[in-house]
Amino acid sequence: MSIFKKALGLFVEFEDEEPKASNQNSSWSEDGLPIQVKQKATQIFSVVNSNLPANAIVNRATLSQGVIDKFEKHFEVLFDNVNLPGPDYYEFWKMMETLEVAVPDEAVRMNAVFSTLKVQGLTKETLVSSAEKYLEVVEKDKIEFTNAVSSKVLGEIEGRKNAITSLEDKNKQNAELIQKLTAEINENTQKITSLKKETIDEEAKINNNTNGYNLACGAMLAKLTSDIQKIKTSL
Length: 235
Prior knowledge:
- The protein is built from six helices and no strands.
- By secondary structure, the chain is mainly α.
- It has a domain at 3-155.
């Protein structure tokens, strides 16, 4: 198991692993880890989650194999880039991985690996100091990742949220405008109907009055014309 998966095993139960027998020793957890280590890992995991956005809380359900593989590669590259010449913590744990199947007892394996690398110049002080160096590198990487996530949230997610809010407000305004225009259309339609009826009635009245006037005026003109003629001829 790689360094990354070994560390991730503090928080994630891998599906391809066989169930581990429960250890009766009260100082060990059910997954084969010392109780103190498990408790410390849980505390670290809580701190990591507290520094992430609320919707980015890490849990077992969200860690797909693809995500695990991606970050395993990320930390391998990170360690490779800062690895110094000569044996140190990184080479120590690489050899620990190699011997894990042959020497399952971790304490025995650690002593065997240390004895082997000690011949190449590795000391306990170098092992501890180099592990602390990798710790600093990972902590710095975490800060950079957290800043990148925050920038991503502000630059893209928040921007999209603001766009959603703006569009929702615009839709609300348009819906209100549609309701207002629909009410105006209905009101205008009623007015149009009323005005059309009034127009027809008024046109009928005007036509009736015009016809009546024309008849009356025609009769009057005829009467006056006839009377003038009679006066001229009769008197």
